[in-house]
Amino acid sequence: MELYMSLAIGIIFAVGIYQILSKSLLRIILGTSLLTHGVHLLLLTMSRLKTGAAPLLSEEASSYVDPVPQALILTSIVISFGVTSFFFVLAYKAYQRLGTDNMEELRGMDDE
Predict the structure, then answer these.
(1) Cα–Cα distance, 75 to 10 (Å, whole number)
(2) Is the distance from CB of 23 to CB of 102 less than 8 angstroms?
(3) In this structure, are residues 65 and 52 in contact, taking their beta carbons and an 8 Å threshold?
(4) Tell me: the pLDDT tens digits for 56-107?
(5) CA-CA distance, 53 to 58, in Å (whole number)?
(6) Is residue 22 a contact partner of residue 31, using CB atoms and an 8 Å limit?
(7) Cβ pair 33, 84 in contact under 8 A
(8) Is the CB of residue 13 less than 8 Å from the CB of residue 33?
(9) Distance CA 32, CA 72 (A)
């Protein structure tokens, strides 16, 4: 199971980096989003999926599940959603104002 997760994480990282290296601003944003999802899967895989009782204050369960990795991943998902939506709005406004999402053309507009 961990081998398949590692393979999936590697593929997601590769596709994300490929998207970031493109010229389109939307592809760069989607590549960044893919990289964050790859990091979420990496954190989940490294913390290993544990079975046991919920971390409640009782004496009945002999083993407890550590809630910290899941809480960190959930927090990271919320933050990455906010950052990605901000990037999409920023890219939309840049496209409305400048008429392009090509990064080479956007860099050339600085000289003018």
Answers:
(1) 23
(2) yes
(3) yes
(4) 666 666 777 778 888 889 999 999 999 999 999 999 998 998 888 888 887 7
(5) 10
(6) yes
(7) yes
(8) no
(9) 19
